[in-house]
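Researcher: Please translate sequence to structure tokens.
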Amino acid sequence: MKLFIASDLHGSALWCARMLDAYRASGACRLVLLGDLLYHGPRNDLPEGYDPKAVIAMLNPLAREILAVRGNCEAEVDGMVLDFPVSADYGLIFDGERALYLSHGHREIPKMPAGSYYFTGHTHIPHDYVEGGVRFLNPGSVAIPKNQTPHGAILYEDGEVRRIELSEKD
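Model: Translation complete:
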């Protein structure tokens, strides 16, 4: 199973398009979105290319390929304009015996057995570490990376994880 995992688009049509280019090139079967898809929130400046309606138009045709969880910037109205669910606080995917837990990262960390993967966004800073036998992963932000980290995502395949840096091309 090959998954393309991304977070924190914050309504940037420019960076959403670049993310989708990388997703298509990756050969992944699913696009996993870890929240904060359409709005920038009160603590962030507007991202480059801010256009939530254009993001909606880009994501909706891929609704059958998308698995999304709610971020702290998602609103009830998002469910009315997106053709895929975006209201769950957590998601869970099984890759054989391996459990992949999905969350935006702004809620309590669920109990997970050793060997699990826990994918979150929220901080806009990528990380990859193991604690208590659980691998904690954050792809960073598609649109508003922090701490001088590049715009990015994660490619997951059969337990292997690779960080993808999104292109700065115009």
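Researcher: Any highlights?
Model: Strands lie at 2-6, 30-33, 66-68, 90-95, 98-103, 117-119, 127-131, 134-138, 152-157, 160-165.
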